[in-house]
Design brief:
Elements lengths: L14 E4 L4 H17 L3 E6 L2 H13 L8 H15 L5 E6 L3 H8 L5 E5 L6 H16 L4 E4 L14 E5 L8 H13 L2 E8 L2 H6 L10 H14 L9 E7 L2 H8 L5 E8 L10 H9 L4 E7 L1
Parallel strand pairs: 1-2, 1-4, 2-3, 4-5, 6-7, 6-9, 7-8, 9-10
Antiparallel strand pairs: 5-10
Length: 300
């Protein structure tokens, strides 16, 4: 889709949540309310829909009432009530936009500190469409996009602060994803676990894995150098753990997500390029992560 937008990471803008009236959407609102409170941000709820075409009738069926009794404003008002109940005193605004959700949310991302979306919405056709929306928004927005999978915990942070996992890529030097992960760890009081995957072609061919093997040493050392370079400006108030792991980056990060509260990955945005701009690692994380995934864009 032709959605060329500027890439930026800001803190003065609101945290925007895409809502659709589903229970997963309302759980995402609760999660986002926690996140907004942690960061001292305003929360903006956006319901983007094609109401006359199918949204109104679908919600009416879900609620078991005549379609004339369900209004789009009801959707965002219910979400706003959930947010205020979760975080009393949080500044919350809401809006209904009669537009394709992916276009509306990417547009909202231009003035957002970050976007929060669920990976799925209501059942049936709408669920498939909303799954596509979350992927499209993550691949095109100019701000970080946090996708909450259906298996996510109900709160942004556990009582003990938890930990954030950062996937460190080859070109992570001074990247927006690294800076975003620093901010998330600081606001949450969480441990930041930076992970760099590496592979030894000889091991892949033989099926033999031995990190002490002389052939593997240069690959592991290179991974350690990339990790050190990416993290050289780590703020002193962040508890940092560094880890290099042999294996495919997609598998390594999905495994690391099992005990994490947030997985942060970068996505390159190429000037003049249209269509999905995620990369294989971010794409795999969105589909298989066991925790929420933050996709942070970086201009190539």
């Amino acid at each position: 889709m032709n959605m060329k937008v500027p890439v930026r990471v800001g803190t003065e803008h609101p945290l925007v949540v895409g809502v659709d009236g589903s229970e997963p959407s309302l759980r995402a609102v609760g999660w986002a309310a926690d996140e907004a409170a942690l960061r001292g941000m305003r929360l903006r709820l956006v319901y983007a829909c094609l109401w006359d075409r199918y949204e109104g009738a679908a919600l009416a069926r879900d609620f078991g009432v005549p379609s004339a009794r369900v209004l789009p404003q009801d959707v965002v008002e219910a979400a706003a009530e959930r947010a205020r109940d979760r975080q009393p005193g949080l500044e919350v605004s809401c809006e209904v936009v009669f537009e394709e959700p992916e276009y509306a949310l990417v547009h909202e991302g231009r003035q957002a500190a970050a976007l929060v979306v669920g990976s799925r919405g209501r059942s049936g056709l709408a669920e498939l469409l909303l799954g596509s929306v979350s992927l499209t928004v993550a691949a095109n927005a100019g701000c970080p996009v946090i996708v909450l999978r259906n298996n996510h915990r109900d709160r942004a942070t556990p009582p003990d602060g938890g930990h954030v996992v950062l996937g460190v890529g080859e070109d992570a030097n001074d990247s927006a994803a690294v800076r975003f992960a620093f901010d998330e760890a600081r606001h949450r009081g969480a441990v930041l676990e930076a992970v760099r995957a590496w592979r030894c072609p000889t091991h892949e061919a033989s099926g033999h894995v031995s990190p002490a093997d002389d052939l593997a040493v240069p690959h592991e050392e290179h991974a350690e150098k990339v990790l050190a370079q990416a993290l050289r400006n780590t703020p002193p108030d962040i508890e940092l753990r560094r880890r290099t792991v042999e294996g495919h980056a997609r598998r390594v990060l999905v495994d690391a997500s099992r005990d994490a509260d947030l997985l942060v990955v970068g996505a390159r945005r190429h000037e003049g390029h249209f269509g999905l701009q995620l990369g294989r690692i971010a794409h795999a994380a969105l589909h298989h992560s066991m925790c929420p995934v933050a996709v942070v864009p970086q201009q190539a």
